[in-house]
Design a protein that fits this description.
Length: 311
């Protein structure tokens, strides 16, 4: 079969798919041929993959493991698994009857100290006025210096009593603040917005200080921690793009997430946790952290993924 030179050049320089299209339709006009060449050229230039690594989906900083701030019995558990919580929200309260009783006594002592201070302070203006009058009278010869000295002595004593009462009121105030802080230790609050993943305590539980209570998933963007084999570390750099797909068998292996960008590459080597080589022994890797270009759908923290780095 006779073909024009244009048809020959196309069929010899483009992929099989483009050549098949040309043979089906004959040699089309120049604009159609140019279009097919452009499509074929685009298909002939796949992204240059430089490395593949295994990884896990995570959140920056990891999950939050919350522990009991003090020893005591759980009086109220105000959350359940799967619940979303806000920063500062009370999650758990321990029984604090003794702490509340101590605080009530301290508050009463503070009130008494403040009342005593106020009473001492109210005496000062009258004593100052008396001293001023005696001093004026002494200048005019209507009183002797002994009266002035007695008035000054009374004022000094009253001022000393005020200073002591003020110190007692300050001590009482700080004691109340201390007991209030200790009482707050009987409450466990969310350090940031998060989702409750797991609870290890219930109402009535006896907890020790530091006993695990809950695990929270913070509401931060998901990241990927990929273990790059030492053989490919030189090919990875910050800002590089990557494909992320579920690392598993069957249909799950074909599930892909949005593209990701390398945020940072660790400056140190470490042992692999996601891969090993039974023939060569422990594998040395460098951790690479990637951020998704768009929030992934149905991604879960701890999910195994396969990362393909490309130029």
């Amino acid at each position: 079969m006779n073909r024009s030179p244009l048809c020959l050049s196309l069929s010899s320089g483009v992929p099989l798919l483009a050549a098949a299209l040309l043979s089906l339709g004959g040699c089309s006009p120049a604009q159609d041929s140019a279009s097919l060449v452009s499509v074929a050229a685009a298909q002939a230039k796949p992204q240059n993959q430089v490395a593949v690594a295994r990884g896990k989906i995570d959140v920056e900083g990891g999950l939050l493991d919350l522990a009991s701030p003090a020893a005591g019995v759980v009086q109220q558990l105000l959350i359940k698994e799967g619940q979303s919580v806000q920063k500062g929200q009370v999650l758990l309260r321990l029984a604090d009857d003794a702490a509340r009783a101590d605080l009530a006594v301290a508050e009463s002592e503070q009130q008494l100290a403040q009342t005593r201070l106020k009473a001492r302070q109210e005496r000062l203006p009258a004593l100052k006025t008396t001293l001023t009058r005696w001093q004026a009278a002494a200048k005019q010869g209507a009183a002797d210096l002994q009266n002035v000295d007695e008035a000054a002595h009374s004022l000094r004593d009253a001022q000393a009593e005020v200073d002591i009462a003020a110190a007692e009121a300050s001590v009482a105030k700080h004691k109340v603040e201390q007991l209030r802080a200790l009482q707050q230790r009987h409450e466990l609050r969310a350090p940031e917005a998060a989702t409750v993943i797991r609870l290890t305590a219930h109402a009535g539980s006896m907890l020790q200080s530091g006993s695990p209570v809950a695990v929270l998933l913070p509401q931060r963007p998901l990241i990927v921690r990929a273990e790059v084999n030492e053989s490919f570390v030189a090919a990875i750099r910050e800002g590089m793009k990557a494909h992320v797909a579920v690392d598993g068998d069957g249909g799950a292996a074909r599930l892909e997430f949005p593209s990701a960008t390398v945020l940072r590459v660790s400056p140190v080597y470490g042992p692999a946790r996601l891969q090993d080589d039974t023939q060569r022994g422990p594998v040395r890797v460098v951790e690479s952290v990637l951020v998704f270009d768009q929030p992934p759908v149905n991604a879960k923290v701890g999910q195994n993924v396969r990362v393909s780095f490309h130029e």
